[in-house]
Amino acid sequence: MSTDISGSVADRQRSRAGRRAATPNAAGQIAPPRQRRPALAALALLLIVGGALVAGLLAVRMDSRVPVLVAQQAIEPGAEITADDIGVVRVASDNIGLIGEEYADDVVGAYATTRIEPDTLLTENNVSSETPIPDGRAIVSVPLEGKLAPTSTVRSGDLVQVVRATASSGGTEDAKVLGTAFVLEVTEPEVDDLGGPGEVPTASLLVLDDVALEVIDAASAGEAGLAILRSGQEPDVELEGAK
């Protein structure tokens, strides 16, 4: 007996064909579009814009630096300023009171109102067109080392007594009063390369000219002491000489 299988085979083929039509080929599938991340895109845009703004501000800041006058060497109080004493540097324009390069001709021939250290920017306070030394008086500098002078309390406008105390003095009876002085200014020391203090502070004193040499000699020997008599005085205060 023969068995006809053509119908069953055809049925199975039609069934497989139907299943293939119902299930798409994975290789032919199209991947869905990737979702964008708006937050990351906005952050990247902010970083780009922010970087551009910072660069622009730095450029503007550099352009705002202006040329001003600076001391090339030490200038003693009361000394007439020469062209060799001054140079030019560029600094930020928001520094108030500095003297611009365009006033160099006016500064030459002017006077230092206090001791000006090298590399110090010239200001309206340390330069005067008129001599700060009245007739019969002189300006001297005295270091405030703490042993003989009250470093933390001496201020501009103080009337002080200048005393010479030698290192070998056995007591106060050996000290010599050199006279009184008016404190024009106290100059703080510059910091050194390591960030520590450099030289000690110095006081610019207005004294009678007949005791100036004695005060300078005592200061250079480290023997000049200061005693505060009165504070808040004017430069025309009456001064005394050696007793």
TrEMBL record:
Coiled coil regions in record: none
PROSITE patterns in UniProt: AFP_LIKE (PS50844)
Organism the protein comes from: Nocardioides silvaticus
Record-annotated membrane-spanning stretches: 39-60
CDD domains recorded: SAF_CpaB_FlgA_like
Residue ranges constituting the AFP-like domain according to the UniProt record: 68-130
Sorted UniProt keywords: Membrane, Transmembrane, Transmembrane helix
Protein name: AFP-like domain-containing protein
Top-level lineage group: Bacteria
Keyword Calcium (UniProt): no
Cited Pfam families: SAF
Keyword Secreted set for record: no
Region annotation (Disordered) ranges: 1-33
